[in-house]
Design goal:
Length: about 450
């Protein structure tokens, strides 16, 4: 029987920082002075923005180039930032080569984080992913697994009998096939990764400012030349900062920021400007629960995903688990607040958990929180690269829930485009803005 007892509460920022063993608040609320000009303005100081700043300054230092990089972040405490409210998953179980390759590099970067970021502990747990498929999805799972392994992933397909033997806590009813990430998959502390990027970028010379971009300015040729920034300075609450290049990495708010530049204006005389950046917030719930059930999943339990999208994983050494599931389009919750819908757990998630893992028939929710996906409404994949009209504007947004593991690769890719004019490591050309203009979706079979 489900035991909730109304002890469910929405996790506050302090609760999340406690769960992640985060540094004190002084690590992120400090703000550098706001300059009048920068070479590169990065809008958004979450994972994508901080990674871009890190890579830009690192490459500039290696090439002995002068490059002033300014990062503007509106949420000084990262209280609602998608990066730190993520569950920190890392997997290569995708169907697109770009996503697989970016996540493979994400693994290499996270595994060697101290080499890149110095004294940082990302608490990587290499327990893998276990994606389960019914007979309807088994062929796709098998096809994707073959492709992933060809590109360098390491996962194994398992029949129901093999699943039951390897994971005795699992009920394999209605399961035709499972794919288990034997290596290079797991989860990590997203807060620690963000702080590592930010602190190292600052050490290399990047500046971080607490403020919000509220508008843009244009040059005489119609290109972007500056941004209006509402800052925390009471003496100058609204300032203009001119820039040579700009990186839009504002997460779930990227579509709104793009519209400030006239991107998506239906009355625009230039056709390409009528195409919006279709990125918006989508609220997702994460629940933390414990169980007294017998035959409970152990410490090495992988992040397990049911065919209906419900996922769970162990959380630390105390016997707690994290779980959640993305709703169908018709049930998308409103995004005005980060309040948690407790009934969603009762009616939508718990029945699946109890069916798939008998030990979860009697569970108690300990806490919960909500965060935003930076959701790409067009094809649920990241938009990366130069804008086709504003050629000094680079976009890194719309990763729809799988971006945190790809921040190392995306930041590196943005730095390559900004400094060298082309991709040097992973070719991400297909993920450009033009696919939105031409209405050519880049669909991912394994987004969960």
């Amino acid at each position: 029987m489900l035991s909730l007892g109304r002890v469910v509460r929405t996790a506050t920022r302090q609760c999340w920082r406690t769960l992640c063993s985060s540094p004190p608040a002084t690590a992120f609320t400090d703000s550098d002075p706001l300059p009048e000009h920068c070479d590169v303005l990065i809008i958004g100081g979450g994972g994508m923005g901080a990674s871009s700043a890190y890579w830009l300054r690192l490459k500039a230092k290696m090439q002995q180039k002068k490059l002033n990089v300014l990062v503007v972040e509106r949420d000084a405490g990262y209280t609602s930032a998608s990066t730190v409210l993520s569950v920190g998953g890392l997997r290569q179980q995708f169907s697109l080569a770009e996503n697989i390759r970016m996540s493979l590099y994400g693994y290499e970067f996270i595994k060697n984080a101290k080499t890149h970021l110095g004294d940082v502990d990302l608490s990587f747990q290499p327990n893998g992913y276990l994606i389960l498929a019914s007979s309807k999805g088994a062929d796709m799972l098998e096809r994707n697994s073959k492709f992933q392994n060809e590109l360098g992933a390491h996962n194994e397909l398992m029949a129901p009998s093999g699943l039951a033997q390897r994971f005795p806590w699992l009920c394999t009813e209605n399961i035709a096939l499972g794919c288990y990430g034997v290596n290079k998959e797991g989860w990590f502390d997203p807060w620690a990764l963000l702080m590592g990027f930010k602190q190292q970028a600052r050490a290399y010379g990047a500046q971080f400012v607490n403020g919000e971009v509220t508008g843009f300015e244009w040059n005489t040729q119609g290109g972007l030349s500056g941004a209006l920034i509402s800052s925390c300075d009471p003496q100058q609450p609204l300032r203009k900062v001119t820039f040579d290049k700009c990186v839009l990495a504002a997460g779930a708010h990227s579509g709104k920021v793009a519209s400030l530049a006239g991107i998506g204006d239906p009355s625009a005389t230039i056709e390409v400007l009528r195409t919006p950046l279709p990125v918006e917030p989508r609220k997702r719930y994460v629940y933390v629960f414990s169980t007294q059930g017998r035959n409970c999943p152990g410490l090495a339990t992988p992040l397990t995903i049911d065919p209906d999208g419900t996922y769970f994983r162990r959380d630390g050494l105390t016997g707690n688990f994290l779980c959640g599931r993305s709703p169908c389009d018709a049930d998308e919750p409103e995004c005005h607040t980060l309040d948690v819908d407790h009934d969603y757990f009762d009616t939508q998630i718990w029945p699946t958990l109890a069916t798939r893992v008998p030990a979860f028939e009697s569970i108690k929710v300990q806490s919960s929180w909500a965060g935003y996906y930076d959701y790409n409404c067009f094809d649920a994949n990241g938009v990366i690269g130069q804008h086709p009209f504003y050629t000094n504007l680079y976009i890194a947004a719309g990763f729809s829930g799988h971006g945190i593991q790809q921040t190392p690769a995306v930041g590196r890719a943005i730095s390559e485009l900004v400094l060298e004019g082309q991709y040097k490591t992973i070719d991400l050309s297909r993920m450009n803005f033009e696919r939105l203009v031409h209405k050519e979706p880049l669909l991912e079979d394994n987004i969960v």
